[in-house]
Amino acid sequence: MSKNRVPAIEGWFSMDEAAPALQGLRDTESGTVFFPKDVAVSRVPGHADAPLEEVALSRTGKLWSYTTNHYQPPEPYVSPDPFEPYTVAAVELTAERMVVLGQLAPGVEPESLEVGMEMELVLGTLYEDDENEYITWKWKPVGA
Amino acid sequence: MGNEVAILGVGMHPWGKWGRNFVEYGVHAIKAALADAGLEWKDVEFVAGGDTVRNGYPGYVSGATFAKAMGWTGIPVASTYAACATGAQAMEVARTRILAGMCDVAVVVGADTTSKGFLAPTQGERQLDPDWLRFRLLGATNPTYFGLYARRRMDLFGATEQDFAHVKAKNSRHGFKNPNARYKKIFTEEEVLASPMVADPLRLFEICATSDGGAAVVLSSLDYARKHTTDPVRIAAISTVTPTFPNTVIDMPEFATDSAAEIAAPDRGFKDSIAHAAYEEAGLGPQDMDMAEVYDLSSALELDWYENIGLCKPGEAERLLRAGDTSIGGRIPVNPSGGLGCFGEAVPAQAIAQVCELVWQVRGTATDRQVEGARVGITVNQGLFGHGSSVIVKK
Known about the structure:
The complex is a heterodimer of chains A (144) and B (395).
Chain A (H helix, E strand, L loop, with lengths): L3 E4 L15 E5 L5 E2 L17 E5 L3 E10 L16 E8 L4 E7 L13 E11 L3 E10 L3
Parallel strand pairs in A: 1-9, 7-9
Antiparallel strand pairs in A: 2-3, 2-4, 5-6, 5-8, 6-7, 8-9
Chain B lengths: L4 E12 L5 H16 L8 E5 L6 H4 L1 H9 L6 E4 L5 H14 L5 E8 L17 H9 L3 H16 L3 H15 L13 H5 L3 E3 L2 E2 L8 E9 L1 H7 L4 E7 L30 H13 L8 E4 L4 H10 L8 H6 L16 H5 L3 H17 L12 E8 L3 E8 L1
Parallel strand pairs in B: 2-3, 2-4, 9-10
Antiparallel strand pairs in B: 1-7, 1-8, 4-7, 5-6, 8-11, 10-11
């Protein structure tokens, strides 16, 4: 029996398997978008009263940098046993001009990465238990 | 020069992994700084404590904790926290009180006792705390961010793993005889490059450890100082700037930068703005500096700072390093103390320790690591959640 796929955190991204997107907020006065939407206030100076609307961020950008962690982080990171190294990528969304961190999608070799390459957002498993796979956003080179 | 205050005394408890109560390190540092100043505890009119968030309630009220430990005298206290920039904020609180004419003599102190391994977030299920969430959703430890910056230097500027190891080796040569340093050992580049990979391309010996330690300074008004000494060392500037929206470089513990699509990024980015504000206040520039103490949380990060404090243009830091310009004996020695590479980080004490080093340097009492003829220097550091920290010390 396959496990349920549930988001590792509610409301940060859409569970659209084909074309997932990060969920942000837009300040409708200045047009500036924010991610994550943990504090529902526009952070543009002078716009604290600006109305906000939910917005799906664009799904592609350029790789800003990346690093592979070879040591197990402390809790609350949920690590496989035994620990497996994982890569964190920073991608600058082209439309929003905003750098967003995410883990690298499984199956992509970090050696294949180069700063500046085109990346896209996908869904992937962050960790799992007996019943559920906890899903999060990940970055993958376009066409990989 | 209306913002100057005097540094009458400095003191430190050696860095290490001693496992004792942080209050003991702070008291040790205060006593050393008072002795250095030729003053007594009863002369102190204000205490600014740098908080530690890893030692329970006494750490959150550090000003009172240290005042009580030294013996209550009824004086006012302040307790501040700004992550790695804590010490600079505590100094700024003391300085502004002195400059406002509300006291003549203030003690600034920070001390920490740390556990082993990665700095970890506050425990519990904390879905609204970005510092907790970055570990849960990304596994983004502090070295993760350092690794991102280092990899970008390699791809943008042609930095090499050899360069990063060079920084660590240089700093170990500076600090291995420093009596307050934790790591009293010379590291070769080969040893550094043979240490385990932590956050690619950074290795174990290139990433700052967490340490126990304590540091204190005694600050006074210039008028008071002139009655006690002929030529006091002075603080010419303290910068505690925050970013300007939109902040476009990813900082701990963030998931994302601000968006620069609708509102253009400021001409001067946050890390560049930190030292800039200090230079402006002091009426000095990078060309006037004889040395710098910069926050080498990783070996590669030291190279970023060369550019952020104006020692060279972006992309030129490796050239400075390779030419020996930033070694003692070079044009602009960086981290003559040995830096975090020799100390590890005792968070609330570290920005104060940077100032202690500059004071010993401009007095000409830094012994084996003395920068010849040093008269003015700058410290720089950045605390997570947007805290800038820079102090200019001059003779």
